[in-house]
Amino acid sequence: MTTINETNNGMKKIQIFDTTLRDGEQSPGASIDPERKIIIARQLGKLGIDVIEPGFAISSPGEFAAIQQISRELQHVEIAGFARAMKVDIDAAVKATQDAARRRLHLFISSSDIHLLHQLNKTRKEVVQIAREMIAYGKQFVEEIEFSAMDSTRSDRDFVVELVEAAIAEGATIINLPDTLGYAMPDEIEDLFRSVRRQARGGETVRYSTHCHNDLGMAAANSLAAIRAGATQVEVTVNGVGERAGNCSLEEIAMIIETRKSALQMETRIQQSEIYETSRMVSRAMHYPIAYNKPIVGRNAFQHESGIHQDGLLKNRNTYEIMDPEAMGIPRSMIVLGRHSGRHAIKHRLSEYGIAVEGEELVNVYNRFKQVADEKKLVTDNELIRIAGEMTDTQPDPYMLSDLQVLSGSHKSRIATVTIRENEAGTEHSYTGTGDGPLEAVIHCIQQAIPVAAEFEDLEIHSLSTGEDAHGEAVVTIVNNGERYRGTSIHSDIVYAAAQAYVAACNQAMLTINKLANEESVI
Question: Per the similarity annotation, which family is this (predicted)?
């Protein structure tokens, strides 16, 4: 027989409580409109989240409506209604979540003397009384009540025990001891949870949750420490978004548990294949870029430039990777071509596009590649294909952007004219298109020219320098027949760079399609 926190294989079940739509949205400038909240909530359901905290119902009518819609739609996920220890908040949270199949009320009040003195202007006795009254009030409406003693890690330990004891006595079923300022060390978190569980009357009769912020970069480590001390729920946000340095990252804690499952003897319900899509969706909705070196979902998380690493990866992925990016829905692009790359990586990358180079040709391509890499640091796939064409006297790229002009204005649609060269035929043709923005107009032109000009899925723009001669890097992702292709370009005109990157991605799609067709004809 298994308990609620134990799976059939005997592993400890860790519930994932996602607060991206509440705490995560409190990031400066990261507000999400109600319609997008609903879309993200649906994706969180697909991801396998156990509990979703969709917002702060009292904050606005739009927020209330979004929470209400999410509660109605996501019948397979528990919904948490967030509220301060105030009747007006509780009423709003209860009403917004009333259509949820499973729900809880999440009440909080501060426990640190710093907050009591400077924020609440209350005594400890008054705070305990408020907690008692509001939990008892909330218990009229819901069975599950999660109580958070805010700023627990900077609070007097005896007072935290007293406050938790009072909460349990009034009917709280889940106790959350938040590291609100990301201040604690892992051993301190572990000791806090063990002490409260042991010392508070009724402490062993309730579940425990951990909510860690990342101000000192220890949110994931502190969350694991709380789990070791008995917590069975961890509160997270997608991409680690949140106030200041953010919250414990959902993808990080999920993959720590998954990757070290046998050592930790824990598991979650998270569906790995949905991690990358969820990360991208939240990044786009919040207009928050993901750091290149962000664990799991960052651009560099599964990329290698060192020739030694590249050689090992091409022989066996496990030499330099502990996780499978494709299992998380991350497109396979493990090798980044730069000044530290070796011949093996160059040859392998070109072979992926059906371009074979051997012997002296490979030496010539490699030497030219190194010259370009010294100038640009990183060499994109389209640049490598162009180098191969120059050194082997061929023209692998099916298409090339020859010219681009855009007419912009403050009120009218943008008009673009694009000239595309078809390299095999040696011909050039010009196309005209319109769009609400200059890039949309340009893409409409290119789609007329290239047969596989597929769905424009994503655009990343990065500034590479400053001043009047500043250059920008554009990274474009397209989707063709369910496969993703990425093109990159650097130019002082960012619209031109994006257009070049789009053409490069289309070229990669065509080269890959042609390669597969040739392989099938040989078979």
Answer: Belongs to the alpha-IPM synthase/homocitrate synthase family. LeuA type 1 subfamily.
pTM of the model: 0.82
Contact 420, 448 (CB under 8 A): no
- Give the CATH number, domain containing residue 211: 3.20.20.70
pLDDT at 395: 66
Best CA proximity match to 14, nearest among 257, 176, 242: 257
Does residue 446 sit within a domain? yes
Domain end call among 348, 375, 392: 392
**C-alpha R_g of the chain:** 27
- Name the strands in the sheet holding 414-422, side by side, starting at the edge strand that comes first in the sequence: 399-407, 414-422, 427-435
Q: Which of 345, 336, 279, 339 is nearest to 311 (CA)?
A: 345
Amino acid at 115: H
Q: Of 133, 124, 126, whose CA–CA distance to 161 is shortest?
A: 124
Encoded amino acid at 92, one letter? A
The larger pLDDT score, comparing residue 410 to residue 484, is at: 484
pLDDT category of residue 3 using cuts at 50, 70 and 90:
very low
Residue 363 counted as domain residue: yes
Number of H helices, E strands in the chain: 17, 16
The end-to-end CA distance of the chain, in Å, is: 54
Confidence band, pLDDT 50/70/90 cuts, at residue 313: low
Write out the residue range of the structural domain in which residue 445 sits.
Answer: 399-522
pLDDT band at 12 (very low <50, low <70, confident <90, very high): very high
